[in-house]
Amino acid sequence: MSSAYLQFDQVSKIFPGVKALNGVSFEARAGQVHGLLGENGAGKSTLLKILGGQYRPDGGRLVVGGQERHFSSAADAIAAGIAVIHQELQYVPELTVAENVLLGRLPQRFGFVNKAAARQLVRTRLAEIGVDLDPDARLMDLSIAQRQMVEICKAVLQDAQVIAFDEPTSSLSHRETEVLFKLVADLRAQGRTLIYISHRLEELYTLCDACTIFRDGRKVATHPVMAEVPRETLISDMVGRELNDIYGYRARPLGDERLKVTGLHGAALREPLSFSVRSGEVLGFFGLVGAGRSELMRLLYGADPRSQGQVALDGQVVSPRGPSAAIDAGIVLCPEDRKEQGILAESSVAENINISCRRHELLGGLFLRHRKEAARADAFIRRLRVKTPNREQEIRLLSGGNQQKVILARWLAEPGLKVLILDEPTRGIDVGAKNEIYQIIHEVAESGCCVIVISSELPEVLGISDRVIVMREGRISGELSRAAASETAVLSLALPDMQTQATAQAITA
Amino acid sequence: MNTLTTPSSSSTSPSTSTASDRPAMNSKHRAWLNEHSMTLGYALLFVVLAFSVENFFSAANIVGLMLSVAQIGMVACTMMLCLASRDFDLSVGSTIAFSGVLGAIILERTQSVGLAIGGGLLAGALIGAGNGVLIAYLRVNALIATLATMLMVRGLAFIVSKGQAVGIADESFISFGDTRLFGLPLPVLVAAACFVVFGVLLNHTVFGRNTLAIGGNPEAARLAGVKVEKLRVWIFLLQGVVTAMAGLILASRITSGQPNSAQGFELDVISACVLGGVSLLGGRARIFGVLIGVLIMGTVENVMNLLDVDAFYQYLMRGLILLAAVLLDQLKTRGAARR
Amino acid sequence: MNTLTTPSSSSTSPSTSTASDRPAMNSKHRAWLNEHSMTLGYALLFVVLAFSVENFFSAANIVGLMLSVAQIGMVACTMMLCLASRDFDLSVGSTIAFSGVLGAIILERTQSVGLAIGGGLLAGALIGAGNGVLIAYLRVNALIATLATMLMVRGLAFIVSKGQAVGIADESFISFGDTRLFGLPLPVLVAAACFVVFGVLLNHTVFGRNTLAIGGNPEAARLAGVKVEKLRVWIFLLQGVVTAMAGLILASRITSGQPNSAQGFELDVISACVLGGVSLLGGRARIFGVLIGVLIMGTVENVMNLLDVDAFYQYLMRGLILLAAVLLDQLKTRGAARR
Amino acid sequence: ADPIKIGFLVKQAEEPWFQDEWRYAEQAAKEKGFALVKIGVPNGEKMIAAIDNLAAQKAQGFVICAPDVKLGVAVERAAKRNNLRVMSVDDQLVDGAGKPIASIPHMGISAYEIGKQVGNGLAEEIKQRGWNMAEVGALRMAFDQLPTARERTQGAVDALKAAGFPAANLVDAPQAKTDTESAFNAANIAFTKQAKFKHWVAFGMNDEAVLGAVRAAEGRALREDAVVGIGIGGSQTALNEFAKPKPTAFYGTVLISPKRHGYETVLMMQQWIASGQAPAAVTLTTGTLMTRRNQDAVRKQMGL
Ligand SMILES: Nc1ncnc2c1ncn2[C@@H]1O[C@H](COP(=O)(O)OP(=O)(O)OP(=O)(O)O)[C@@H](O)[C@H]1O
Ligand SMILES: Nc1ncnc2c1ncn2[C@@H]1O[C@H](COP(=O)(O)OP(=O)(O)OP(=O)(O)O)[C@@H](O)[C@H]1O
Ligand SMILES: O[C@@H]1[C@@H](O)[C@@H](O)CO[C@H]1O
Ligand SMILES: [Mg+2]
Ligand SMILES: [Mg+2]
Fold this sequence. Notes:
The complex is a heterotetramer, with one copy of chain A, two copies of chain B and one copy of chain D.
Chain A: E1 4-15, E2 18-29, E3 32-38, H1 44-51, E4 59-64, E5 67-69, H2 74-79, E6 82-85, H3 97-101, E7 108-109, E8 112-113, H4 115-129, H5 144-156, E9 162-166, H6 174-189, E10 193-197, H7 201-207, E11 210-215, E12 218-223, H8 231-239, E13 257-265, E14 273-278, E15 282-287, H9 293-301, E16 308-313, E17 316-317, H10 323-329, E18 331-334, H11 338-342, H12 349-354, H13 370-383, H14 400-412, E19 419-423, H15 431-446, E20 450-454, H16 458-464, E21 467-472, E22 475-481, H17 487-494, H18 501-508
Parallel strand pairs in A: 3-10, 3-11, 6-9, 9-10, 15-20, 15-21, 18-19, 19-20
Antiparallel strand pairs in A: 1-2, 1-4, 4-5, 7-8, 11-12, 13-14, 13-16, 16-17, 21-22
Helix pairs in contact in A: 17-18
Chain B: H1 21-52, H2 59-68, H3 70-84, H4 92-110, H5 113-137, H6 142-161, E1 166-167, H7 171-178, E2 180-181, E3 184-185, H8 186-204, H9 206-216, H10 218-223, H11 228-253, E4 256-257, H12 265-275, H13 287-306, H14 311-336
Chain D: E1 5-10, H1 16-32, E2 35-40, H2 44-56, E3 61-65, H3 72-81, E4 85-90, E5 106-108, H4 111-129, E6 136-142, H5 147-162, E7 170-174, H6 180-193, E8 199-203, H7 207-219, E9 227-232, H8 236-243, E10 250-255, H9 258-275, E11 282-284, E12 288-291, H10 295-301
Parallel strand pairs in D: 1-2, 1-3, 3-4, 4-5, 5-11, 6-7, 6-8, 8-9, 9-10
Antiparallel strand pairs in D: 10-12
The complex binds adenosine-5'-triphosphate (2 copies), alpha-L-arabinopyranose and magnesium ion (2 copies).
């Protein structure tokens, strides 16, 4: 086997109020995929930002290919053969796929961009790695998944020796994930040094040769042979406690039909859609990327204009005309894209939690109750184990997963809840917190609410739902009870018609 | 209704926020410095000037200084909200002129101070609401929309006054500009009241918080139930009313409604806000910063006049001092910056 | 060399982009409309005016119109870059005045046209680079930084000229302002050249694409290895040089360097850009749009004078037409917008 | 007693005219040994602030050219409040109803009168050249937003009419701003509209406006033999034109003496403060038409 190509030696990074990395050392070998795991806020992304030249470490050394390196900018890291795919996607929405992929190194002649060459280059290389994207499409016109794929291609096409992936699959679904896995395997075969961060253990087992586990900015353990590490060890290393059944599903008696959606139609759907949810029910929505799940829920929530259809709650037509009307009716939606639709980046953690639910407790309908708000914020920070120095920290300074927790808290804090819609709620969230969120989902359901969970993680959908609706290309392609919802059954409903059952089985296997 | 609002006790597991104490202290200090550096800077400047510039630290001069920034101060309060919500308003200068002219004309025709003030404020409200509707509902770019209103309102001011200053004879109206209470002229007290009211509005009400929210991320705010469009209209409407009030006060101080007054006023107000740390990209505003920004602007001018600085060199000095102020502010945030 | 060059078989599975063809067609149409609606609108306006306004469609008037927007046009080209990179420049008006004055003074002292032009351009370059350094490296807010330079440079213009217009006697320098080539005055040709050069720069060079990138997402650009700070300085430097050129041309047209010329010029230029679809939030710019924006501004003024519109009503009309232009533009993007 | 300190407030500090006024006032201050404070007051608000500021620095009186004559009452009140003596220069202050304020002494010439001198100068030159008035267009460079600008041009119009100039031949060219380029653009359009005139006369609020008209005329091959422009101010802008090797259509400018206005007003004020002797209620000065030919003589006569 090759020797360690990349070495972190006692690397530390301190932010105001947070010791993000505290003397971390480990090595990654060429021709291997080295997994990084750890709770939200454990310091994984910070490490990659140091590797990518975005941050300078406050202590320690970085050795690449036997040479000690000190990067003062991202450009330095790129020059040293390092490519990083960051957790927060970093693309230019107004530029095309080709321009984004080649940003910083557009092919040129006397300063002029050789557009044809750029387009051609990107088209062929994308085809080679099996990604089907139009090089001329602008990023702003693509779905998040597609943007994520562009980011991946940008890094991969740098032909760097070291490639680091920070939760690349968090916004991908099966199709792209499959492409990505193939890509990672190919890169490994070429002898590249790969670092791979994910909260999905299955994924890590599939891809990684070795792994290092972080907790609170420290390295807890390095396991040189991934396959030999039991799942329980990983979890307890990471969370500091045992977790048996992370879904913690509890059967519960379902009440009457509470939410009824009839003939809802809007821009991204192919036909009017109808479904209903019973009181106390957790309804899972599964589908491939672009299947229209988010779109459907946005129509329900009034976030996008609907062309027809109605929404009834407890037998009364509510059909909200906008999010604020929906919230007043007791319907809330936790959106899928936390950066664009979720966080108020400049505001504090407390503010992000209280923004909506505070309206129930105002003095004279106008003035805030600071103490109540602070108490609520602190309670959720504790309960969801949000890693933040205090509730006044700006949310943008939190790690990705912790931001997600804060946004979830915003909706869980809602007192008049009747329908809770969660769009990819556990995206980027660690196992421990996932478990906590599933607990809350069950609690909410037990209190008589309807819970709708959109997820692209099949095990998750199957693990927590009483019933699963599967969507495909803007239509509902099927509905399965918990008992009937096997992976194969769900996938065969989700995949395009021409795909055979066999493919579904192949993926599941 | 459910247990969610009172988080369960199971969650008390020994805290995830493990930050050691030292850096936390550090960050508190830094945050404090961050919050107050401008104020400290201004205080320092003030002390230095008090000792070095003759006549600066006298009751008469300080009152004069405050009076000179009273209008800017009032409008800066609402401009702060406007910028905080990621908007922009170029029409305030024209609105000042128009409301002053209109008030003077109404006063001339009806002899009623009440009608004059009411008319002026109503005009301001309509202009503001118009801006708001254009920007929030018709989605016109704020720069262009308020540039258009700026032109139109200025035109109206000229048209209704036939381009002439409209004299004001009413004693009670005029006296508003120079009556003193507790030694302070009324305009200064009104400006102070604005700072208090809008400070409370920004920090202690839903209105203020939602304003920051739509400035920080309009889409997220909308999905969180904020009625973005309505709020925007309200912000502009408020801005219009306060600006009209400033216009009426100015008219009373200069005993006439002047259709060409307050040209370039918008830039002064926006600059004061930005100097006070309000972000043009929205989502960030501090009323105290705005107050300091306004005072800096006023002090610079005051001192240059006290020192009899040549008109041409005043340009140079004003530029230099602006730069010095932001650079100072920059210096201390340097460490705190991302890298 | 590796498997990457031999496409893996599994990857031929049909696409991650599931958008059907119909909407794609639709979106092409829409994009086209989006791209050209302003142009179509202007073309329509032009034809209507040509038929309805006497003297409008005459060679003399069209040339006059173009001449009246030549300076704005030149500077709008670089302002477009500046806005596209999410910056802002208020100092252009002062730079026009200063470079004109400086050029005139140098000419007076040395009688050398070359030195005068060189000196003016160099001054512009320095002012621009100064802005760039302040903003890119010292991270001063662009509004405040360029406001400060605006004041300082205006002050310098007054100081070096002692507040007086500086006469230009040199025939060859003056003739630049009114020489005609192919029936078009040189300033118009220079402006046209600017549009071509900066259009190419924006769309076909790495410089231009990186400019859009840092405006669209500075962090992404930096992470991709773009030298953001350096690029910013270059953009401002270019802006300074082009503005100085405009100032020299203006001086040659009015046969003197006037220290108080071009006040408020910055707002005109920025408005023309925004009207032409350049986003103040960066990342979006089209040279053609800017051209149309500049022409709209010039045409409105031209036509109002041709029609003898009263000065006071001109304000009203200018505002209304600005609004009409953006509302029209808004209407068609309505459907396309995400909302 | 405190040393004498006198303020000199002017509406457009950047204008050469006011720079000159200040310079001569400074000269007087130096000669007589009192302090002079010069402040630019571009608008009413700044004007009030400046008066307060003067009081704060213990001045005893000030001379002012206010941004608008209707600010008279405001000036009067601010002066009274601060216990300052005040006299006006250049533009006479009026009250809300438009009547001159008696309690404020004045030295100057009315804007309308300057304008009339321009008009008379133009009429005279038309006669000199033997032009047929029916073939002459009169270009009024208009900036009616500014009261003085309107009054000046109105004076010129009235004088031309009085000399028999046909009202129908008056052409307005509204400037968007007060600079030369705006004047150029406005004049250009006016020439386009009114191609029928063989000859032109041009006037405006200042030298810059007329210069714009002259340059625009040259662009249409209308030169010094076909156009007569007379400006106001006698600024460097005008002198530059006169200094050109060949005469241009910038025929002349009405010069008023900044020396008298600057020097004499502060002296009057000093007298007032020192000995309580108030200046005459109104002192009128006159303007003189200065042309290429008589420029040296006129400037000498004005003490420049
Ligand atoms: N710029 C910053 N300023 C202040 N604190 C920061 C900053 N960047 C990161 N942190 C803090 O450093 C810690 C580590 O963050 P990091 O993003 O590395 O976590 P992570 O392991 O990637 O978590 P996740 O799984 O949620 O992505 C967190 O507590 C985070 O809040
Ligand atoms: N920002 C966007 N711009 C253009 N089209 C979009 C955008 N977002 C989604 N779409 C399109 O809308 C349709 C439905 O997307 P939607 O996001 O609702 O799917 P989804 O099932 O929720 O998938 P995902 O897992 O990506 O959230 C798809 O055709 C998708 O390509
Ligand atoms: O403003 C003018 C000034 O320019 C000078 O011409 C004298 O009179 C004043 O009214
Ligand atoms: Mg992370
Ligand atoms: Mg979705």
